[in-house]
Amino acid sequence: MEQSIEQTTEVLLCLSPGEAADLKEGINFLRNKKTGKDFILYKSKNRVRACKNMCKHQGGLFIKDIEDLDGRSVRCTKHNWRLDVSTMKYINPPGSFCQDELVVEMDEENGLLLLELNPPNPWDSEPRSPEHLAFGEVQITYLTHACMDLKLGDKRMVFDPWLTGPAFARGWWLLHEPPSDWLERLCQADLIYISHMHSDHLSYPTLKELAGRRPDIPIYVGNTERPVFWNLNQSGVQLTNINIVPFGIWQQVDKNLRFMILMDGVHPEMDTCIIVEYKGHKILNTVDCTRPNGGRLPEKVALMMSDFAGGASGFPMTFSGGKFTEEWKAQFIKAERKKLLNYKARLVKDLQPRIYCPFAGYFVESHPSDKYIKETNIKNDPNELNNLIKKNSDVVTWTPRPGATLDLSRMLKDPTDSKGIIEPPEGTKIYKDSWDFEPYLNILNAAVGDDIFLHSSWIKEYFTWAGFKDYNLVVRMIETDEDFSPFPGGYDYLVDFLDLSFPKERPSREHPYEEIRSRVDVIRHVVKNGLLWDDLYIGFQTRLQRSPDIYHHLFWNHFQIKLPLTPPNWRSFLMHCG
Description:
alpha+beta; 8-stranded mixed beta sheet; 7-stranded mixed beta sheet; 31 strands; Rieske_2Fe-2S
C-alpha cells in the first residue's frame, strides 16, 4: 500500500524580538549556531527577504560584494557569481538564475522565523525495507569513465557507455583501457541509462557498435527540455527502443528492481541523475549534476557514485588576455580543484552512504595538438578525495579500475572482506597508451572543404538559424589552424547580436566583446551539422578573449543547450546560392 507523504515545514532560524529589531537596512549575514548553517537576510523598510547563504552554482559561500556601492549584492567565494539579494536574481552571470527564497514569518512577539517548505521526497513513495542479499547477487563492475555494469539479481543495467572514440569532437579521449569484452557486456544488458547528452555519456561511436548487434536494446533517459537523443537521426545510429521517462517516479523493472531519474537543480534542461533500488538497497549515481535534485538526495544509501575530477570546461585554460596569465590560471585551477574536493567530501559526509565511488572523471586530452591543455588542466586524484572522505566519516570508499567488481552484499556485511572487491587480473592493462585518432579526425576534416563554405553568406544563414539576438554582445569569430593561428583562406568576421548584423568594424556604442578562435575542422563540422558548441568549448577547440571579463550566460547557454533541434537546411542554401 502506498505510503502518504506530505510536504513539511522546517524552521531554519529563529530570531528573538530584539534580534529581529536589530536587523539593519540592507544585507545581514546570520548563522544558526546550533546547526552551523548560514543565511542572508535583506531588509528594506518593513520587508525582509531571506535565502540560504549558498550559491546556486556549486554551493559556495557568499560574502559582501565590495564593488557594490548600493549594498544590495553579495559575491560567491567560489566563482565570483554575484547575487542581488533585493531581487534574489543573479547579476553575474547576467540573465541566469534566481535564488530560492525562504519564507519569513513574524511570531506573536515580533520575533522572526525563517522557514523552508520541503516537498516530499519522491523516493519515499512506496518505501521498501532492505532485504537480505546473497553474495554475488548485486555486483557493480567499472568499465570506463562514467560507465558501470550493474548485475542486479538476474537483470543487468549499464550506466553511460562511452567505451570507444572521442568525446567533444576531438578534445577528450578515454584514460582507461576498457575491458576487452565491453561490447559483449553491453549486448547482455537488460537496460541502459544515459544521464545526459554530453558525448562522454551519450557516445555515438559506442552506440553505433552496440546498434550493430542490438538495435532494440532498451535505453532510458529523463524527460529533459533538450531531448537527450535530439541528434539521433543526424547521427545515423539505428536505435529503436529509447524510453523517455518522467522525473521523480519509480520505474518498475521487476518485483525486486526499480529506478528513478531526477533532474539537476542548475541545469534541469539537460542534466539528470538516478537512484537504482534492488530489494530495498539504493544505489545513487549523481553523475555530472551540479546540484542533483536541487540538493535534496536520499541519505544512507548502500552505494553512491559521483564525478570528482574537475577540468570539464574550457575555463580558464582556453582563455587569454587581462588576468589570464599562466600563473593566474595555474593558481585558479589548483584552488578550484581543492574546492571541488571539499564540496564532494562534504556532500558525502552529509549523505552518509555506506560506500562511495568517485568516477566520471577519467578522460585525457591525448591528441598531440592538445598538449598544452593536457599539461595545464590538472584534475583531482580520486584517492585524494577518498582519503579526505575517510578523515571525516566512516564511509567506505572505492577507487575503481577497469574490470574491477564490487560485491555489494559482501561489502555491506564486512568492508574488509577480501572478496568484497575483485580487482582485474594481474597484468591487465589499466591505462590507454594509444588512441585511434585518424577515423574521427577524418570525419571532422571532411567539413573543411564542404561547398557550404565557398559562400560567405553561410555566416548570416547559420546565425539566423541559431536564433540568438537582441543581446548586447559583439563576437569576433576567427577560423584557425591546429595552433590557433588564422587559417589560410579562413573566415574572420564579426557578429553583433544586438541586431544580428555582421559589421566590418566594431560598433561605436558601448558593448561587451568576445573573440573566439576555433579550429577550422571542428567549427565547420559543428556549423554544417547544427551541433552544440560544447564540442568547441568543453572540447578545448577554441581560444577566447573577452572584454569586460564577464561570463555571458545567455549567449553560451543558447549555443551550448538551446540551438534548434534540426540542423540548418544547407541543401536549400546551396540551391539558392547556385
